[in-house]
TrEMBL record:
<comment type="function">
    <text>NAD-dependent protein deacylase. Catalyzes the NAD-dependent hydrolysis of acyl groups from lysine residues.</text>
</comment>
<dbReference type="InterPro" id="IPR026591">
    <property type="entry name" value="Sirtuin_cat_small_dom_sf"/>
</dbReference>
<feature type="binding site">
    <location>
        <position position="165"/>
    </location>
    <ligand>
        <name>Zn(2+)</name>
    </ligand>
</feature>
<dbReference type="InterPro" id="IPR050134">
    <property type="entry name" value="NAD-dep_sirtuin_deacylases"/>
</dbReference>
<protein>
    <recommendedName>
        <fullName>NAD-dependent protein deacylase</fullName>
        <ecNumber>2.3.1.-</ecNumber>
    </recommendedName>
</protein>
<dbReference type="GO" id="GO:0008270">
    <property type="term" value="F:zinc ion binding"/>
</dbReference>
<keyword id="KW-0479">Metal-binding</keyword>
<feature type="binding site">
    <location>
        <position position="219"/>
    </location>
    <ligand>
        <name>Zn(2+)</name>
    </ligand>
</feature>
<feature type="domain" description="Deacetylase sirtuin-type">
    <location>
        <begin position="33"/>
        <end position="317"/>
    </location>
</feature>
<dbReference type="GO" id="GO:0005759">
    <property type="term" value="C:mitochondrial matrix"/>
</dbReference>
<dbReference type="InterPro" id="IPR029035">
    <property type="entry name" value="DHS-like_NAD/FAD-binding_dom"/>
</dbReference>
<feature type="active site" description="Proton acceptor">
    <location>
        <position position="157"/>
    </location>
</feature>
<dbReference type="Pfam" id="PF02146">
    <property type="entry name" value="SIR2"/>
</dbReference>
<dbReference type="InterPro" id="IPR026587">
    <property type="entry name" value="Sirtuin_class_II"/>
</dbReference>
<keyword id="KW-0496">Mitochondrion</keyword>
<keyword id="KW-0520">NAD</keyword>
<comment type="similarity">
    <text>Belongs to the sirtuin family. Class II subfamily.</text>
</comment>
Length: 321
């Protein structure tokens, strides 16, 4: 039976601190007041009641690993810059655009690929280990869930750690392509000005003119990150597979996503059709707030519980299931 919808409002109690995290990590986490204990108790209750939890995660989960998102108010790329992500059609159509994309991606790769899962990724992995979490769908392409050891995982928009050939469909490791870039561009260098959610960086167009991009080793085709660019759509078989996993689940938890992109939002619509209970943990409004019985505005990771100590929200919940 569906519980009454409860939307929790934030408040900052006197003496409580705003959310904090280790220095250098929180640059891309939006400002957020402390989440009150009652919200966390309700969230804990929600997770405890679920037997086969379907979890969908987004960029808000990875900002605490130091990866910026696109949409967060004030700190997302849309707010800070006039840069927008690569469009699929432009990548396929224009050799110059591919050269620019790969040059930036080459510069950003060492930093982007070094990011590590945070406490929230690890907590979700433990939920899976304990049989609480049935399936995890992420909209992130940063491989942090697989780095955390998540097994029942669908990377809805692909993964920037893999490369695909548009000619033969072959999949290869992005790390291998980095070696080919280095071999082809021994004297090329550029200063990176910040790494985007897909591993892109900001460098001037004139810097990329001499960057050499290799073709597929097998067929000579065009290489593209195995990532769904804007303007492209998610593979139909993948969408159906995720719908099937949703049908096997009994509750849905959204973590760190505003669900603005339809490819993820559609699963919330399906959950609504199935009358499944939905809870959302995210800073700021989401497209699916009207479908949730519980909405907690808070960071995915470290959330203060009282004046003296901080506990990790998802880790804390994991301890109680
Ligand atoms: Zn090929």
């Amino acid at each position: 039976m569906r519980l009454p919808r409860r939307i929790l409002t934030l408040h900052t109690a006197p003496g409580r601190r705003a959310s904090s995290a280790p220095a250098g990590v929180v640059n891309f986490v939006p400002a957020c007041s402390t989440t009150d204990l009652h919200s966390l108790e309700l969230l804990q209750d929600f997770v405890t009641r679920a037997r086969r939890l379907f979890v969908i995660t987004g960029a808000g989960l990875s900002t605490e690993s130091g990866i910026p998102d696109y949409r967060s108010e004030g700190v997302g790329l849309y707010a800070r810059t006039d840069r927008r992500p690569m469009q699929h059609a432009e990548f396929v159509r224009s050799a110059k655009s591919r050269q620019r994309y790969w040059a930036r991606n080459f510069v950003g790769w060492p930093q982007f690929s070094s990011h590590q899962p945070n406490s929230a990724h690890k907590a979700l992995q433990r939920w899976e280990e304990r049989g609480k979490l049935h399936w995890l769908v992420t909209q992130n392409v940063d491989a942090l869930h697989s780095k955390a050891g998540q097994k029942g995982l669908t990377e809805l928009h692909g993964c920037a750690h893999r490369v695909m050939c548009l000619g033969c469909g072959g999949i290869s490791a992005r790390a291998e392509l980095q070696k080919r870039f280095l071999a082809l561009n021994p004297d090329w260098s550029a200063q990176a000005g910040g790494v985007a959610p897909d591993g892109d960086v900001f460098i001037e167009d004139e810097q990329v003119l001499h960057f050499r991009v290799p073709p597929c080793e097998a067929c000579g085709g065009i290489l593209k990150p195995e990532v769904t660019f804007f303007g492209d759509s998610v593979n139909k078989a993948t969408v159906q597979f995720v719908h099937d996993r949703l049908a096997e689940s009994d509750a849905v938890l959204v973590v760190g996503s505003s669900l603005q992109v339809y490819s993820g939002y559609r699963f919330l619509l399906a959950a609504g059709d199935r009358k499944m209970p939905v809870a959302i943990l995210n800073i700021g409004p989401t497209r699916a707030d009207h479908l949730a019985e519980l909405k907690v505005s808070g960071r995915c990771g470290e959330i203060p519980t009282d004046n003296r100590q901080h506990t990790d929200c998802l880790s804390g919940l994991a301890g109680s299931i």
